[in-house]
Input
Amino acid sequence: MPVSINLDIETGLQVVFFLSILGAILAVVIGIQSIRSGSKLMFFRKRQVLVMRGWRNIALAVVLAGVAFSLNRYAEPAIYRVFPPSPTITLTPTITLTPTVTLTPTVTLTPTITLTPQFSPTPMLPADYEKKFTSQITPGANSVFSSLLFSRKIEGNLPVEPLLDFVNPVDHLYGTFSYDKMVDGSQWTALWIRSGEVVCEETKPWDGGTGGYGFTDCFLPSVKWQPGDYEVQVFLGPQYISGGKFTVSGNAATSTRTPIPSRTPAPTISRIPSKTQAPILSASPWPADTRQPTVTSQATVTLQGGLVPDVLIITVTGTPPSGFIP
Output
């Protein structure tokens, strides 16, 4: 199947120019190789032939280089002298539509009611949160945040399977973003909002460095993730810098209360009466009796015939002292 190629003069000359340059380079390479090969031969005749062939190739390269130079410099003007270019047709509109009747309004209505939008297109940080600022560093004017991506978990501050619609049960969500040209110590705030009510918040001085990846998270009991549209607003100082929206669908989990067991009164401990020690009887000494026995009679011993009586009877009269045993 024949293929037709339409080339203009300029394009054709450029093709010939590049082919000439390529031919000159090949001729130089082949000529140098031929001269080197001939110089290594032992036979004079063959060496002479190869060297001459190499110089002819080098001469051909010089000619091709001259042709390429001439084509690039003089060929196109010379060809245009022989074949002058045809003028380019310029389309000129022939019909100009002119309106004939101009309607001039006779009554100008002046609006009497000015509608004030209830919501500002740019979120504003509530004044209550500005009172919580602890940083004294002015945020950088060139700081930038990307839009937030939402997921159930993250790895290395990057989202894992980001979604825009989460199905209950939900308990912990992350909003990840990239940032650049931040200043450590500047105050930043993230608000998680549902139906105009803040459900999660954080505001603190920035400590993530100049650039990288960061996140804000919201951890709530499953019963508090009600279905609806949620929005996360990120502020740098009091200025809104980034945000994102997502949806929670499905009914929130219901809390199941475990009945608290009633207290059983502890048994009353009856005290056992303590033993009363028996009184210790201390023996008191008998009173000393100072009475002395009274001797009322005296025994008279009569020794007869130098005999010693077998029994000597002594009679003592009177009351003996207490404790005396006769």
